[in-house]
Amino acid sequence: MFASTKSLHGNIMGQILVNDIGYTHFTPMKAKSEVPYALQEFIQDVGIPSIIHSDGAPELSKGHWKELCRMHGIKQTITKPHSPFQNRAEINIRELKKQTRRLMKATSTPLPLWDMCACYVSELRCLTAQPLYALHGWTPFEMVTGNTPDITEYISFHWYQPVWYHDTTATIPKPTKLIGRWLGVAHNVGQAMCFWVLTSMGVPIARSTVQPITDAELRDPAFTTLLEIFDQSVIQKIGNNSITDSDMAFEIGSHEFARALADSEDDGHYSPVDPDATKRDVDDFDEDVYDRFTSAEVLLPKGDINLLPRYLGGSVIVMGNLLDATMRIPS
């Protein structure tokens, strides 16, 4: 995954490792040559995968990467050339891009923080239950590690939230309680509940002495002025805080399928075939409606009528799309 903006840490791309149940591991990188180190980081933090399926890029099939796979007994398979649909990482890249972009838009996050936001989003994806049968109601984190996740660090604050942090270097008469912006959990730093905080100088620092700003303080005009001064200082140090789709122009690859995949992202726009139709919300359906769809059966055509498969005689094997099939929904 590539970015059009260099991050504060000098990253311009990232390597994504995913599995079939939605576990996502994102590693920011400065160059393609760092790809093997992303695999090494995954092995250290998560574990050794039994098999890796990737495209045929040299950095993913030769050199140090190939040596790591051989050293750890990892079987590697390659997709057919010009067949990105054979790699489920493509879809996860699209979803990671989409969620990162939307979160940065909603919070007016400066563009150079895209790598930290992408890491935060990938961690949330691992800790979020998804409607996949293979998960059985668990999160991807539980299925991969076997441990129940502790989400305390993630529910205490939200991305780019204004917070108070303690400045240990401040001396009299300078204040020790300063405004910052929350940038996620600081793993491998200190003990639990240690977070990355953006300072007014545009530098992320790790702090465990972080407190949320109260609603009363947010309504205080004096604090609002201080927060505006803080945001202006950050913009001056690291760049513009506005974001558009073109600003976060991540690229999946150079082939036409990848470009079409990137162009086909759903950004919330809905164009029904029927001009008078509207997109129904999940709250528009009750339990009875879901029960009816759960027990729905496929009707297959026979002559001029549609019959259930059990009335057609023998076994029914359907190959390809059910272009001529309809559904019978119990009333």
Features:
alpha+beta; globular; SH3 type barrels; 331 residues; disordered C terminus; five-stranded antiparallel beta sheet
Top CATH class of the largest domain: Alpha Beta
Shape, per Cα inertia axes: globular
**Biggest sheet architecture:** 5 strands, antiparallel
Task: Please tell me the total number of domains.
Answer: 3
What amount of the residues lies in strands? Answer: 15-25%
CATH superfamily of the largest domain: Ribonuclease H-like superfamily/Ribonuclease H
- What structural category arises from helix and sheet content? alpha+beta
- Helix content, binned percent: 25-40%
Q: How many beta-strand segments? A: 12
Distance between the termini: 48 Å
User: Mean pLDDT across all residues, rounded?
Assistant: 79
CATH architectural arrangement of the largest domain: 2-Layer Sandwich
Helix and strand run: EEHEHEHHHHEEEEEHHHHEEE
